[in-house]
Amino acid sequence: MKKLIGLPAASGIALGPAFIYNRGILYAERYHIDDVNQEFEKLESALKQAEADLAALTQRAREQVGEVEAEIFEAHAAMMRDPELQGRVRALVEEQKVNIGFAWQDAVQFFAKTLRDVDDEYLSARAADVEDVGQRVLSLLLGKPLHSSKPEAPSIIVADELTPADTILFDRASILAYCTQGGGPTSHVAILSKAQGVPCIVGAGAELATIANGTFLVVDGSSGVILVDPNLQIREDYETRAGSRLHLQQEAIKNANLPAETLDKKRVEVVANVGSHKDAVEAIQYGAEGIGLLRTEFLFLDRSSAPDEAEQVEAYSAIFKEIGSSKPIVVRTLDIGGDKPAAYLNMPKEDNPFLGLRGIRLSLRFQQLFESQLRALLLAGAGYDLRIMFPMVSTLDEISQAREIFERSRLALAAEGRAYSEKVQLGIMVEVPSAAIMANVLADFVDFFSIGTNDLSQYTLAAERTSADVAYLADPFQPAVIGLIRLVIEAAHNKGKWVGVCGELAGEPLATPLLLGLQLDEFSASPKLIPELKQTIRSFSSKEALDIAQEAMRLPNAREVREYLETILKKAEHGK
Amino acid sequence: MKTAQFVVMDPVGLHARPAALFVKLASKFSSDITICNLSTSGKWTNAKSILGLLACGVKQGDQVEVRAEGTDETMAVEALEKLVVSNFTEGVA
After folding, report:
1. CB contacts, 8 Å: B57 with chain A
2. What is the CATH number of domain A36-142?
3. What is the pLDDT of residue A102?
């Protein structure tokens, strides 16, 4: 048996055969043709079919994954009809009397190479797009399937990387887990698998490529462990664990609407991370007691102009209505930066967008945009328990300025005589170490803190979470990150303020007893994770959790913290 | 034939969104429109092709020339120049 360790990206245990996913590359042989027009007809019908396929993919992506993925397929459709590309293909066929498949392949390779030769990251990515769409059309011209194959029986997908175009093709029922060689906890597949509730391990390294198709694997998405061809006893052991997990999950879904309270009846709040109206509907279904993080970027990205006040009010109102007036709704103001720029803002290109103009820094630069968002939130929030928080705060000054603009917006609405939300809590996201260290001072100027553990980890460890090489460092179980979380909670409680966690850590079962022990008030996680999160909270007493947190904080590194928490969780599961 | 020369000041050059906007605008005219990056290759390419334009590799500070030939050539050249010189804000909502 071989044991590989990658980065845990989505929790859960899976056992089953490996399915080695290869993006099969198609080649067209060159041969002589006589009837040029017949070749052009073939191309036209292939392009029409490809357009229909891409339209279906766009639709599917929009419904299941998101707008960004959908636009990738739309861009592919436009690229396919590019006049230069078409011109080159036609010229080749006419001048050299070669078959259309070869001419298409040749022209696609020419543009891909030209774009790659310009030595620019953006253009290299476009080169990959040209090749991707090139393969799509070529498969139709050759009458061969685009991808090598799809798993027939339920399998664990093993790949070097998985792109949106890959994952959208899989049938959810045939996927037991995903394992990739590259990538980090925030790669496309990591986010997708969490949303699907499928275990996932990323960054497992080159050794993953040595696994043969069909090999039996055990994947533990909570610890990042992949066992290759384990013996019968180990399999049974994991099967039992997977079985009891499944049982627990079903139990948890049944109890989703019960409150989240510890064995000794200490209640905490379990709310949802939401990024669309659809998420809000799901949040209520899965027993969320409100929204702990409403991401508002969906309204601002991938469009050519900013949404106006009316459009924003309408979008917020639709979400608030789903949640209802008795539950808390925490909205994060616009959180964008150079890595996902809004086209209409003309943002400067930055070498290091994660340390650049983003979050509240951007809102304070583009004050009109910020004010229009605050106004829209106040208007839509009338009659709701609205709470607004500012992302990426690093100094007290930023809070003062943001509050000032908030106050200005509020007074303007009052002067206009419009109905707006009068009792709004104002808080900040704690994602930057400086904000965590200054929490005792900042607590006087806010109503609450919400800790964004993903960014707090990357900034504390100085490790970009999108970089495959260092993403392993951006781990919220690092003692330094846990130390900062404790600092923030203590500082807030001393001033009578509440604290939530809205990063991935809140929905991670391993972290639940630890966060309970640190006296966290609010857990905010993806809707699907909520039933289990509530169930885990119900299985500890506050005294137990306190002891666990104290023990965990004595440990010197992330590995030992995880291992310790794993033994705790296993014990709790067996205890049932 | 109408021509115009100008310097691209947008920080991303003629990539990404600016390139897409440029091609979109060029495609609205019936004239044949070509563009050349005078600061580098000097090769002419179809201004209605996103692939051709991207391959020109126009960066911030590069000088380009646009040529249009057809019934709406004057309007085409003026509109494209205005788009680039305004740093891609003119004619865009």
Report:
1. 118, 120, 123
2. 1.10.274.10
3. 94
Q: Using N-to-C axis directions, what is the helix angle for A36-64 and A67-80, rounded to 10°?
A: 170
Encoded tokens for A528: 């699907």
User: For residue B91, what are the CA distances in angstroms to B25, B80, B84?
Assistant: 9, 10, 10
- Substitution target in A74, A115, A126, A305 with the highest count of B β-carbons within 10 Å is A126
Question: What sign for the dihedral angle of Cα A409, A415, A421, A427?
Answer: positive
Chain B contact probe: residue of A346, A351, A357 with most B CBs at under 10 A: A346
- Chain A residues with CB inside 8 Å of B49's CB? 82-85
**CA distance, residue B88 to nearest chain A CA (Å):** 9
Which residues of chain B are within 8 Å of residue A130 when distances are taken between CB atoms? 51
pLDDT digits (tens, 9 = 90+) for A268-318: 999 999 988 988 999 999 999 999 999 998 888 777 788 999 999 999 999
Per the CATH hierarchy, to which homologous superfamily does domain A2-23+149-247 belong? Phosphohistidine domain (3.50.30.10)
Q: Which residues of A are catalytic?
A: 188, 502
Domain covering A266-423+502-574: architecture: Alpha-Beta Barrel (3.20)
What are the tokens at B59? 């960066």
**What integer best gives the mean pLDDT of chain A?**
89
From A82, A118, A349, residue closest to B57, measured CB to CB: A118
Query: B57 — contact with chain A (CB < 8 Å)?
Result: yes
Query: If you average pLDDT over residues A72-89, what whole number do you get?
Result: 88
Asked if the model's pLDDT at residue A416 lies above 90, the reply is yes
Report the residue from A82, A126, A348 with minimal CB separation from B49: A82
CB pair distance less than 8 Å for B48 and A83: yes
| Predicted pLDDT at A460 | 96
Q: Six-digit token pair at A195? A: 């949303």
3-state SS class at A200 = strand
Is the model's pTM score more than 0.90?
A: no
Identify whether the C-beta of residue A251 lies closer than 8 Å to the C-beta of residue A531: no
C-alpha closest to that of A179 among A1, A2, A14: A14
pLDDT at A125 over 80: no
pLDDT tens digits along A447-499: 999 999 989 999 999 988 767 677 778 889 999 999 999 999 999 999 999 99
Q: What is the ipTM of this complex?
A: 0.75
Catalytic residue among B9, B12, B15, B65: B15
- CATH number belonging to the domain at B2-85, selected among 3.30.1340.10, 3.40.50.300, 3.10.20.740, 3.10.450.50: 3.30.1340.10
Read off the pLDDT of residues A28-63 as tens digits, 9 standing for 90 and up: 889 999 999 999 999 999 999 999 989 988 888 887
Distance from the first to the final alpha carbon of chain B: 30
* CB-nearest partner of B16 from A78, A118, A122: A122
* CB-CB contact of A221 with A11 (8 Å): yes
What are the sequence ranges of the domains in chain A? 2-23+149-247, 36-142, 266-423+502-574
| pLDDT score recorded for residue B92 | 46
Residue ranges covered by each domain of chain B: 2-85
Q: Does residue B29 belong to the interface with chain A, where contact is any CB pair within 8 Å?
A: no
